[in-house]
Specification:
The chain is built from 9 helices and 8 strands. The chain has helices at 15-24, 43-62, 82-91, 114-129, 144-157, 176-181, 198-208, 228-238, 243-258; strands spanning 3-5, 26-32, 67-72, 101-108, 133-137, 166-168, 185-189, 213-216. The two termini are 14 Å apart. The structure holds zinc ion.
Length: 268
Amino acid sequence: MRYIEPHAHMVSRVTDDYVALATAGCAAVCEPAFWAGFDRSSPLGFRDYFRQLTEYEPARAARYGLAHYCWLCLNPKESEDLKLAEEVLALIPEFLDRPNVLGIGEIGLNKNSRNELRVLEQHIDLAARHDQLILVHTPHLEDKLKGTRLILDALRADRRIRPERVIIDHVEEHTAKAVLDRGHWAGMTLYPVSKCSPARAVDILDRFGTERLWMNSACDWGESVPLAVPHTALEMRRRRWPAETIDRVVYQNPIAFLSQSPRFRVPQ
Ligand SMILES: [Zn+2]
């Protein structure tokens, strides 16, 4: 099997996970910027994090023949502090030309608050000014449907944003259609304890087809399964999906979206 892991927080994983990904057929891993499990106290904490994402993790992945890409932002959980958000957003442009940076992400909403929405709009503006792809996080704990609608409207309000250059992640049965209808890509996140299981993800594919959809593990410091994508490919095989269709979902689709960034190279 060959596949792309389009959403994994490798800074919080051990090196053995890189070995597991590489041996399972992963060709490239993409790492959106994320909450660290605690609130960072200053912009300097983010500068070091961006250096980790653009310098250290690509080198760690390369030891196992894995390409490593990343996305940069201040995550929604930390965007209540508007002054911190402003300072972190000001740091991002100096990192955008680094060779493994794909765009701005994972931005979005967590509690659907007013400040989160304001910082989301600032990130969308940053992406538009620098012609970057966008990866969006949709809320898990609060109202996902409401949060998704707020995000879709914020994206549509900025006329510079082309919908096909935005992926909305963590979609579920009740949000996938709205995302796809707006012309965006949709990501399904596979979690072991809650949210979207491999079986549910394949049900969603049954319902909505395989156009502009991808799957990811979003593995991080919490309970998560770094091999969730190949596990779900196995579930597809168990349900007798054709090998070509499985390959499209786990390999060709991520490449089609990510290749819109001039920095993404199809792994050889
Ligand atoms: Zn994530």
